[in-house]
succinate dehydrogenase (Cryomorpha ignava), 667 residues
Amino acid sequence: MTKLDAQVPEGSIDQKWTNHKNNIRLVNPANKRSIDVIVVGTGLAGASAAASLAEMGYNVKSYCFQDSPRRAHSIAAQGGINAAKNYQNDGDSNYRLFHDTVKGGDYRSRESNVYRLAEVSSSIIDQCVAQGVPFAREYGGLLDNRSFGGVQVSRTFYAKGQTGQQLLLGAYSAMSRQISKGKITMYNRHEMLDLVIVDGKARGIIARNLITGKIEKHSAHAVVICSGGYGNVFYLSTNAMGSNATAAWKTHKKGAYFANPCYTQIHPTCIPVSGDHQSKLTLMSESLRNDGRIWVPKKKEDAEAVRNKTLKPVDIKAEDRDYYLERRYPSFGNLVPRDVASRAAKERCDAGYGVNKTGEAVFLDFASAIERYGKTEAHIHGLENPSKEEIIKYGKQVVESKYGNLFEMYQKITDDNPYETPMMIYPAVHYTMGGVWVDYNLMTTVPGCFAMGEANFSDHGANRLGASALMQGLADGYFVLPYTIGDYLSEDIRTGPISTESPEFDAAEKEVKATLEKLLSIQGTKTVDHFHRKLGLIMWNKCGMSRNAVDLRSAMAEIRAIREDFWKDVRVPGQLNEYNSELEKAGRVADFLELGELMCKDALDREESCGGHFREEYQTEEGEALRDDENFMYVSAYEYTGDPGTEILHKENLEYEAIEVKTRSYK
């Protein structure tokens, strides 16, 4: 069993990144003009990396399967982006952000990477403000902050409930400038289907033009994977329906180790499943937990009456409500991390206190916030003894200014007015902390292949804190990779253009075509979605919010059976050399059917509970996660063997020098 070397620099935690930058090899501006870099994905990580590398002088080729980089799933992020600027003067610092992130990840992240993330976080905000991102501001003109789960300070910068969209537009504007200068060549509606390795180095990709169906060869001196996470392995998730694992998985099959695949984040604040017809779930931003209070009825008969619609939630008295997060975790209350809040909601619903027709929902109530804000606003307007109606009016105005678009979205989907009645929410698959293994330079185990953002594993451990995804994506793209990739590319200044007319490119192209033609030739009786739904149901039930050994073993066997059936009985209509969305889906689901088994294998191997990985056999008497630091304080990194389910485990031991490892508590 190989022990991985993460190439972490020597020195104290607060000097590692500075020392590394001071000693890193560079590429001079003239040489950058002769070096090509492929960037796969145009979300925050990909867009910021492409713009930064092009600005530095590299020739960038950028790929997205959407019709525009602006369609990347980063646009769906709502609540905010973390940075340790301490604008609220509440005790925040780089170290506090570092500490909260490591603790939130249940001490399963690489210490050095997390500190670097905290260190560059403030620069991200400055960069985005300079781009014109319209962050919310306070009365005095400073950028406003709000609090998110897992912390006791306000460090989350936001643009109403559209933070991801605004940040992506900022990065896209930087990309557009480089596209107009000819430094970025944009390949919209192209999907990466394989990584090409020449002489042991990543030298290009095979991509399919999704409009014409043509298989294309593209070369570069380095390849950067920024293709997001793999949450859609569960079929129902908060991810866009097109989000997939294919680029990362093809990289894995060409030698890049895949790390911590079992670490899946369940978001506690989603609109509940409404029926079998659904193809995705809708996220309600975690920022709502900043002001909303989560509760269920104390009495089962009240919960049943709410489910039967014979009792309205607003008619349940305060003393008959169980604000269970505030009860169980008094120090953090509704702001506990996502994994803790999700499991607590599941526990209440499993116990019979759920409030929708399926019994799988809890309330998120803004009545207290509306009243609190209303009283303050009434006082500001000079009303000494405001009426209840005036308080409610002013309070609703404040809540609308903070969360109006989210409330509007909720009402359009559910036909309930959240200003008047509590929202109903339930946990759903959201983010994946696992991903392609990378070292401190963000390079995978394939030389010349890098991975950033949600596509890699490096910063979040077993659970990501809210508002940290945008932070990591932009940190990697704007402030980390532009330095570290130069260290690798400094060896390529005399290489010259990489030709696509080589046996390696021809073999990869032939393999891709053969796989696609096989999918088209099966002509079975079942649709791609049929297999995806079956896989998703197994993953949610047996490798979802909680797992156990019996279920995981049976899940692996069931997934193998589904995969065999898929390759015998899937029906993919249409042709290869044309627009064919079913063929796109088929390839992605084929990859999910391999990845799903690895997720279960990793969950079975990790005999502990930590963060989003909750093994039912390993919990405290109070139902909290029970870690095993002696045996499992490592990153699980898997090497592909050619046969799914038989991957070889490699370990990166985690060592903590700047932070004390403790049992995580939010009480």
